[in-house]
Amino acid sequence: MLENIRAHSVIVEKVASLLARNLRKAGHELALEAVTAGALMHDIAKTECLRTKEDHAKKGKEICLDHRFHEIANIVAEHVVLAEFDSNHAVREVEIVYYADKRVNHDVVVSLEERLEYLLDHYGMDKEPIKERIRKNFMLCKAVEKKIFSRLSFEPGEVARLIQAG
Questions:
Q1: What are phi and psi for residue 105, nearest 5 degrees?
Q2: 90: DSSP letter
Q3: At 158, is the secondary structure helix, strand, or coil?
Q4: Where in the sequence is the domain holding 61, given as residue range(s)?
Q5: Alpha-carbon distance 61 to 142, whole Å?
């Protein structure tokens, strides 16, 4: 794994674990180990897929299944795009890692808006269909953010400070 991808994954884990621990304190049942492992492993295939041009989320799921990491396979598979979302159901581990990944640009915690701008510039490649998919995914991510933080005692803007204080 490239060092920059490893550094990104470590910060994603810090964000995801902060959220999961605080959700547990608020009475929500979550598998903290799955959140930690899923966040650390979410980009396990990214280095390889930069070379092969494969879908790194799909390839990452395959790697997890090949190594019998069944508990985190779907977390890895859905860290780019969630397969399903219901704002009325309990927060799921996969939603936490999905959201945490969107809050980390390289190895810095940023707002969703900052991350969106980066992704549009970096991956949009002046292709409107790609940009539209990115925007649509971020609309979903805003809904995930609302769901998560409606159950927490702090706001999205406090995440970076809480991690540093941590």
A1: -105, 115
A2: P
A3: helix
A4: 3-165
A5: 25
Task: Give the residue ranges of DSSP H helices in 26-127.
Answer: 32-41, 46-52, 56-66, 70-77, 93-102, 112-123
Q: What average pLDDT does this structure show over 28-57?
A: 97
- Per-residue pLDDT averaged across 12-25, rounded? 98
CATH number for 127: 1.10.3210
Phi-psi region of 148 (alpha: psi -120 to 50; beta: other; left: phi over 0): alpha
pTM for the predicted model, two decimal places:
0.96
In tens, the pLDDT along 103-124 reads 999 999 999 999 999 999 988 8
Question: By three-state DSSP, how is residue 105 classified?
Answer: strand
pLDDT tens per residue, range 60-97: 999 999 999 999 999 999 999 999 999 999 999 999 99
Contact 55, 90 (CB under 8 A): no
Helix (H, G, I), strand (E, B) or coil at 80: coil
Q: How many domains, in total, are found in the chain?
A: 1
Q: Distance (Å, rounded) from C-alpha 58 to C-alpha 65?
A: 11
Q: Residue 165's pLDDT is what?
A: 87
